[in-house]
Amino acid sequence: MATGFGISQFHLNCDQCEERCDFHCNICGLKLCDSCKDKHSVDQVTSHHKVTQFSDQEIFKFLNEKCQLHTDENLCKLCSNCETFVCKKCTVKPFHKDHLFLDMRELYECYSETRRSEISKIREHLIPTSNNIVRNVGEDVTNIKDMFKNIRRGLKSKADSLKTFVDDVVSGEIDKLGKIEKDIIENLNNEEDTLTDFISYLTNLRQTYESKLLNTDKNDIIVSQRENTTIKTIPIPETHTPDTYEYEPRRATIEEVSKLFGSVRLKANGAKRIVDIDDKLTLDTKQKIPDKTKIKPEMVLRRFCFEHLGLHFADFGTLH
């Protein structure tokens, strides 16, 4: 019976976890995946072992296994109907009658060509494109810093401008208050001077009449009384109480001050970076970035290999 080494097993499996493997231990001969290789390197028993990566020749050597049915024969063909690798003797067995067989070496060359093509895409396109994106991101970081620096500078400039306006307003109001104060005080001083002069006038008038009263003959005083003579004076000067003023502060809110400053608004939404990648790699479905990229010949590779050999994958089921 032919071995069940199918096309989906065209890559090598790890001897410890059955995952795809790219490494082998030169001491104990184990085939290892990326994770098991790390464990193998830190284990106390195997830490001194030398683990190396498979070359294409080494992979092909492992694929050149013995047939389980005919142990003296190497696996050399792929039965496309059974999807198993078989030896030459298996191809003539009844259970493989009318089946289509593909040369294992040609399949491997097809796989290697695909793998080299994908590696070339990574090296010549994906890595340079990613490096360009990294540079663009770095430039964006610089531009963003400059942008916000300019915004902060604009806010501070606006604040300085508003402070200047406030100083100008306060200075103008103080000057206005000074003029009003000066006018009021001048008016009060004038009224005070007028009253002082009036008091001096009254004092002199009083002294004059007192002197007359002392020095005038009594008969003359009686005569003057008969004549109903009175002292004539000017009226008391008119005065006014001054106007009074008070400062009525207006409470400014943060919202009102913010309106004076303006606002920081979104100018344009960031867009997805456009990366010109037409071809897609056939990657291991279990691969997760930033782990190392692993290329695996799944159904896409199978179809590619068959079409590369001039066959149609859909026709295999009808070949019996």
TrEMBL record:
Q: Which GO terms describe its molecular function?
A: zinc ion binding
Q: Which residues form the B box-type domain?
A: 9-54, 67-104
UniProt xrefs under Gene3D superfamilies: Classic Zinc Finger
Has keyword Mitochondrion?
no
Q: Which keywords does UniProt give here? A: Metal-binding, Zinc, Zinc-finger
Task: Give the domain of life.
Answer: Eukaryota
Instruction: State whether keyword Signal applies.
Output: no
What PANTHER family does this protein map onto?
BONUS, ISOFORM C-RELATED, MEIOTIC P26, ISOFORM F
Record-given protein name: B box-type domain-containing protein
